[in-house]
Amino acid sequence: MEIIIVIFKSVIIGGLMEFAAALGAARMFHSPTVQALGAFRTLGEMNACEGDAASHFSFGLGFFFNAWASAVGAGAYTQDVTHRILPNWAAAALLSRNKNISETVHNPKRMAIVGAAIVTFLNATSSAIPSSLQVTAVDVLVPAATLLISTVMPIVFWLAALDAGKRTGFWGTLFGGLAQLIMGNAVPGVVLGILVGKGVDELGWSRLTKILFVTVIILFVLSAFFRGFDLNLIEQFKLGVPSWLQNFHNLFTVKQ
Fold it and tell me: Does the global pTM surpass 0.90?
């Protein structure tokens, strides 16, 4: 009886989650004419899949196992469920039948479809598995998901950048390497490299692409600074950190 109640509630909650997340992601394609709940990170990642159903599915799958392990072991969802899994799997389901993205991925009404099934699966499995097995499930699923996210996904996006042309491959490799060093994951850098490379291919070094390039550089500089990458780099070379640089970092460090 308990599992039936869980499934019933999951269908309702999952439907509402999908309606908000996927609908919001779809409406972002219509900005600034229409504003909606969403994250531009989701928009960028969906654009990187270029309307390919298999790419959307595999991208969501890369985060599904980690979300599943979290639901089973901790009883809570990660943000990947709403930001990455639901929108991309909704897009994959629609694109498998209709390749026209304006009628599918960009259509808010049609994007709100798969949340009930995903949430029901996550909740049903987490409630059905005995607590003694939950620890084992986490020990198996988390390392597998980590390997997929940190190793497999960067390679897939990097190969996509190389396949898009020499210029796109160059910027994808450069920014991907920087992102791996600074952020610990190459995917954001490769995606930004693809945007810069394809932008230059189509528009040349116009005012728009120059602004995009400078914005990306500023993003990396700020990310490196707030992660303390410069301090760690200096220490790796066995050099002393200048006091002015350490004091400048301390200005932005919250004291506990």
Answer: no
